[in-house]
Write a structure and sequence with these properties.
With 217 residues, this protein is an all-alpha fold. It has nine helices and no strands. 31% of the residues are buried. The N terminus and C terminus are likely disordered.
């Protein structure tokens, strides 16, 4: 069906895409941290002047909080896809860690690590809202691991007595360690080796998935 041409509303049209602007602002915060990112840098990155930034996002702190929310949302969605139960737990975990490394080392000359941990951990000491978002974000990512371990226990990939909560916390700790060590200068190959060893430990008790009736042989 061909839609009728919509009438353009009166007034000056919005000259920016809010989500794109948030992506660009995230990049600025990611490189310099909250305190080290000036409003001028944010204006240059987003292509928006200060009044437009204020009108769209509020002040610098509100823009940063929105960037944290978006990062957690996107990261969790990526993890859900990586941990899909169409692959074994070990393969799913490795996809999460490999995806994280690809993100952290997108610019090999200056690895950024995790945006959430790398920037919010410092601000959390003096800002209760940042502290709350950091805690909530980390818990959401851990719960995503937990959901996959619970599914694995249900379908017989891991023993019935295995604690999915503990495994999820350990899987999250590996992810956080990779993030910090990437920022601290560890090489990508060394972190890849670390992640593979961690997956073996986490899934040492994993069993081949039970085949259901009608599944491919």
């Amino acid at each position: 069906m061909v839609q009728k041409e919509l009438k353009r509303p009166r007034g000056r049209p919005r000259a920016y895409d809010p989500d794109d602007a948030l992506v660009q602002a995230t990049e600025s915060f990611w490189h310099a941290g909250f305190a080290g990112t000036s409003l001028d840098a944010l204006s240059a990155a987003t292509g928006m002047n200060r009044p437009s930034l204020y009108g769209a996002f509020g002040d610098k702190r509100e823009l940063y909080l929105a960037a944290l929310d978006r990062y957690v949302e996107v990261s969790r969605a990526d993890m859900v896809r990586a941990l899909s139960d169409d692959v074994p737990i070990a393969a799913g975990l490795q996809r999460v860690y490999d995806g994280a490394l690809a993100l952290y080392f997108a610019k090999p000359e200056a690895p950024l690590g995790c945006f959430l941990i790398g920037t919010a951990a410092t601000e959390a000491a003096v800002d209760a809202r940042v502290r709350a978002k950091l805690g909530t974000g980390l818990r959401e990512l851990t719960r995503t691991f937990e959901a996959r371990f619970r599914a694995g226990r249900k379908n017989g990939e891991i023993p019935p007595g295995t604690d999915p909560v503990l495994l999820a916390e350990m899987a999250g700790a590996v992810l956080h360690s990779i993030a910090l060590r990437a920022r601290a200068g560890d090489s990508r190959p060394s972190l890849q080796a670390f992640s593979r060893a961690a997956v073996k430990l986490l899934c040492g008790a994993a069993r081949p998935r039970r085949r259901t009736k009608g599944s491919a042989r």
